[in-house]
Amino acid sequence: MNPLAATVNNYLMKMAVPLAVWFIVEYLVKNAMYSNVMLSFLVFPMMVVTPVALWWLIRKLRRDYLYDSILGIQAWSFGIQLMFYASLIEALFIYVFNQYIKPGNLHVVQKAAIEQYENVQQTLSASGSFDRYLPKLQEAIDALKEAPVLTPIETAISALSNNLFLAIVLMIPIALIVRKKPQQ
Fold first, then answer.
1. CA dist 78 to 13, 98, 142, 168, 170, Å?
2. Model-level pTM greater than 0.90?
3. Using 50, 70 and 90 to split pLDDT, how confident is the model at 18?
4. Within 13 Å and on the Cβ side, how many CA atoms surround 121?
5. What are the domain boundaries of the chain?
6. From 60, 86, 91, 150, which residue has the greatest number of CB atoms within 10 Å?
């Protein structure tokens, strides 16, 4: 293997660890959000940090390892690799967390989501001004009640595939921003 390729791959794997820790914290906040609604205000700012972190990590890769030149397709590829490594670590955590640390967690989360929807339904019906939304809300509650609870492995695979799709989409604008042609 080319020494530069090995160095870049080593960098991507090292930087995937803090990114994975960020994803794990985000997952835990989303899980806790169902029992403490105030945490929902943290979810959006946490989601905004991911593209900024990707941009910063790929820019640092360009500056420190690639002699300040990178093509758009290289940046896109490196970003997907970085997200893949981080997503693998996160998926492993999600599986272990839901299988061994907190086994009934997925049932608790689904039950809490149903309770939140029912609370919203009660609030809207008490106000009387949002009656037209109540049938749709009841459909959502019924769909949640009938939906099967995912197993821990299904949850982990779902998180992995969601992160990879997010990487493919997010890395297009980031790659266009980060790219820099080599100096002649």
1. 11, 30, 43, 11, 12
2. no
3. very high
4. 15
5. 3-103+151-178
6. 86
CA 13 to chain CA mean position, Å: 18
Angle at 42 between CA 40 and CA 48, to 5 degrees: 120
Contacts of range 61-70, beta carbons closer than 8 Å, 24 or more positions apart: 61/8, 61/11, 61/12, 61/15, 62/178, 62/180, 64/11, 65/4, 65/7, 65/8, 65/11, 66/4, 66/8, 67/182, 68/180, 68/183, 69/180, 69/181, 69/182, 69/183, 70/178, 70/179, 70/180
Between residues 3 and 183, the one the model is more confident about:
3
Q: How far is CA 145 from the centre of its chain?
A: 25
| Beta bridge pairs of residue 180 | 70
DSSP state of 148: P
CA separation (Å) from 63 to 52, 179, 180?
Answer: 16, 11, 10
Beta bridge partners of 70: 180
Q: How many CA atoms lie within 13 A of 139 on its CB side?
A: 5
| Element counts in the chain: helices (H) and strands (E) | 6, 0
